[in-house]
Specification:
The complex is a heterodimer of chains A (299) and B (154).
Chain A (H helix, E strand, L loop, with lengths): L1 E5 L3 H5 L1 H14 L2 E4 L15 H18 L2 E4 L2 H16 L1 H12 L11 E3 H9 L1 H6 L9 E4 L23 H8 L3 E2 L18 H17 L4 E4 L2 H9 L1 H8 L7 E3 H8 L17 H12 L5
Parallel strand pairs in A: 1-2, 1-3, 3-4, 5-6, 5-7, 7-8
Helix pairs in contact in A: 2-12, 3-4, 3-5, 9-11
Chain B lengths: L10 H8 L15 H5 L11 H10 L2 H5 L12 H5 L6 H14 L5 H13 L7 H9 L12 H4 L1
The chains are: A alpha/beta (299), B mainly alpha (154).
Chain lengths: 299, 154
């Protein structure tokens, strides 16, 4: 299993713990990531202003992977949807492909058939598979109560994702978390958006949307949130303090990437997984896990 | 919200939108409001209401829609689009409205800034030597600090 690793903009600059833990977990699972230096923005943030420019950006990145003969593996859900959408669109629209190729030619590239684009969580679920993943779990996270947050673009729009997972009843992340021995906690409004894309438009509304989910997860008595997108992490982890201040609330809810949780269950240590770089402190997590292992909850 | 003044309506607006990707099926909307009921933004702020925006577009209220601040409040979560019983690509329609608004000279500063930064430097957050130092410290590879290719692409 060999993929061109698509980091996007946010992860390498703002979410290095995600990149670090993803690379470590990939290594454990025997997945080889190839770094392509020329990758640039996926196009997602430009779509609302200029859809054609977004398509050029997406096609440029896919064409780079195609030149190397590699499928794309993205860590960010928004990058995944932006790139998958372009691949989906250009596979069906020859006129759009011609137009895009006029722009790419100026950069010495050509978009021919494109490549398959997938989120890393999807690669683990589909290509590694649950049976193989289970073999790598060496430390049970029994008693650890995790609320999974799927976010939006990991699953949607469903028409571009070949029937992967189910929009109204998503289960892939839950299955992977359950494999670690952790308890997947159900909560109200599980499918709700993090509000991230509104941060640049109206911060107050973005934070209000994120707050609702933090409330619901707190009510469900989860120990941590699990997610797969740096945008969502910006909302729940980086902005948790701002939400607490703005709404006079208190959460203290660690926000972990799927790769950090899988990594813990693989016996990797907190520094290898960048847990020291999370904004909401995760220091107490290890002792919590230890105590839960000795005294699993009643559920 | 003020009363709708239909004397200001532009019947071409609807046709214009329906001829572009995202707008094809808007006329099929039968105002069931599943979109609004599914919307995480409407849930916290009534300023944003997808079914009303579709209605306004169908009535031909060009200026009221394109010059509004509410079209920018769509978070593009696709909840509405996934659930629309009439198959309206509501999220893509909101993107079409935003693109059309930008062409007409309307856009929040943050959205314009995002576009200009990306078309200028290839990334939202440019990587500098300091970032690379932090990356190298935890064994992550360096990334380019400049991007020339955007000059050719745009």
């Amino acid at each position: 299993m060999k993929y061109a690793l698509f980091l996007g903009c946010t992860i390498p600059a703002r979410s290095r713990q995600y990149e670090l833990s993803a690379r470590k977990v990939a290594q454990e699972l025997g997945i080889e990531f190839v770094d392509v230096e020329e990758f640039i923005c996926c196009g997602f943030p430009v779509k609302s202003s200029e859809i054609k420019s977004a398509m050029v950006l997406g096609a440029y990145n896919i064409a780079l992977a195609e030149r190397q003969g590699l499928d794309l593996c993205a860590l960010c859900s928004s990058c995944t949807s932006a790139l998958t959408e372009v691949a989906h669109h250009l596979a069906h629209d020859t006129k759009a492909k011609e137009e895009v190729n006029e722009s790419l030619a100026k950069a010495g590239l050509k978009y021919d058939k494109g490549v398959k684009v997938r989120h890393f969580a999807r690669v683990i679920y589909e290509e590694v598979g649950l049976d193989e993943l289970k073999k790598h779990i060496t430390r049970s996270l029994e008693g650890f109560r995790v609320a999974t947050h799927y976010g939006c673009h990991y699953l949607k729009p469903s028409e571009i994702y070949d029937g992967f997972d189910q929009v109204e009843n998503p289960h892939t992340l839950d299955e992977m978390i359950a494999l670690t021995g952790a308890t997947v906690v159900d909560y109200v409004n599980k499918k709700r958006c993090c509000g991230g894309p509104l941060l640049a438009v109206e911060e107050k509304i973005a934070l209000a949307i994120a707050k609702e989910k933090l409330d619901d997860i707190k009510t469900a008595a989860a120990d941590a949130i699990n997610l797969v997108c740096p945008f969502c992490s910006v909302m729940y982890d980086s902005n948790q303090k701002s939400i607490e201040t703005a709404f006079n609330a208190s959460y203290n809810l660690p926000v972990l990437y799927l790769t950090q949780i899988l990594g813990l269950a693989m016996g990797l240590d907190r520094k290898e997984l960048g847990l020291n770089m999370n904004v909401v402190k995760t220091k107490d997590l290890e002792s919590l896990l230890e105590s839960r292992r000795q005294k699993p909850s009643q559920e | 919200m003020a009363d709708i003044d239909l004397s200001k309506a532009d019947p071409n607006f609807r046709r214009e939108l329906a001829s572009q990707p995202g707008g094809e099926k808007i006329a099929a909307c039968f105002t069931c409001r599943t979109c609004t009921a599914s919307c995480p933004v409407s849930a916290v702020n009534s300023k944003f209401n997808p079914y009303r925006i579709i209605r306004m577009a169908l009535y031909g209220l060009r200026e009221e829609v394109l010059g509004s601040d509410f079209i920018w409040l769509c978070s593009s979560c696709y909840s509405c689009q996934e659930r629309c019983p009439q198959g309206v690509s509501i999220t893509e329609f909101m993107t079409l409205l935003k693109n059309t608004a930008i062409q007409a000279g309307h856009a929040p500063a943050g959205i314009k800034a995002q576009r200009d930064i990306i078309k200028g430097q290839g990334r939202i957050y440019a990587i500098d030597e300091f970032d690379n130092k932090k990356r190298n410290k935890i064994d992550l590879p360096s990334l380019p600090t400049t991007c020339e290719v955007v000059k050719f692409l745009f």
